[in-house]
Amino acid sequence: MPKTDSLIIIPARMAATRLPGKPLALINDEPMIVHVWKRACQSEAGPVIVACGDIEIKETIEKYGGKAILTDPSLPSGSDRVWSAAEIYDPGGKFNIIVNVQGDQPTLDPKHISKTIDALRDSNSNMSTLITPINNQDEINDPSVIKVAIDFQENTNVATALYFSRNPIPYGEGPLYHHVGIYGFTRASLKKFVSIKPSELEKRERLEQLRALTNGFKISAYLVDHSPPSVDTPEDLERVRTILENN
User: Fold this and answer.
1) More confident position, 243 or 122
2) pTM
3) By three-state DSSP, how is residue 16 classified?
4) 59-68, 214-223, 225-234: which has the minimum mean pLDDT?
5) Per DSSP, what are the bridge partners of residue 120?
6) Residue 63: is it exposed, middle or buried by C-beta count within 10 angstroms (0-12/13-18/19+)?
7) DSSP labels for 164-199?
8) Which domains does the chain have, with CATH numbers?
9) What number of other Cβ atoms are within 10 A of residue 58's Cβ?
10) Kind and range of the H or E element at 146?
11) In sequence order, which residues have a C-beta less than 8 Å from that of residue 200 and are 6 or more positions away?
12) What is the pLDDT of the chain when averaged over all its residues?
């Protein structure tokens, strides 16, 4: 049954730096944003809306029968776009949990949305996210692979994230974890988050989640066994086309 206090929002805009227009890039004859929207709907975790920075994305989602909200194209981040869409869609505050699903992960596992919600609902946290073990040596020093310092206790799959970095953390022997780009917020936490100026650590690492940590937010992370590839470059796009064509 859907978790009726949860709202799933997918922010999307055309002006991506490395792959302009990527929400409408075709994969198996359907735009990428449609793939993400369909998978989010399959989670049955709550209503799914697309927060659009451009009218073309809105028209595309509506053509497929989805709900889309046009947001101010000048908003600085996906989180700002999510909050703007939440206020428009739910001005009365019915939904207590808001999930930010990245619009560039067309192979998203629908179950990951529910796990993000569970990590937030079952903890005393402001935010939740997902992480997965790093098993590929090439990812360890790749700055595009975000690492998480976290301390899992025995027989648990949810713990508090201590820090996020583009560098390998923590130092020494032991497992390393890759951050999966999906966030759950309590409604109050998201409202507070978008009102805070970016922190110096956030600007230095270019990681939004550090704004939360430096302002006292608690972020719970749920351990999953894989991460969906993000599409940031033409090469990434070809990779996910191959994945979805073969499935």
Assistant:
1) 243
2) 0.94
3) coil
4) 225-234
5) none
6) exposed
7) EESS--S-SSS--EEEEEEEEEEHHHHHHHHHSPPP
8) 6-245 (3.90.550.10)
9) 20
10) none
11) none
12) 93
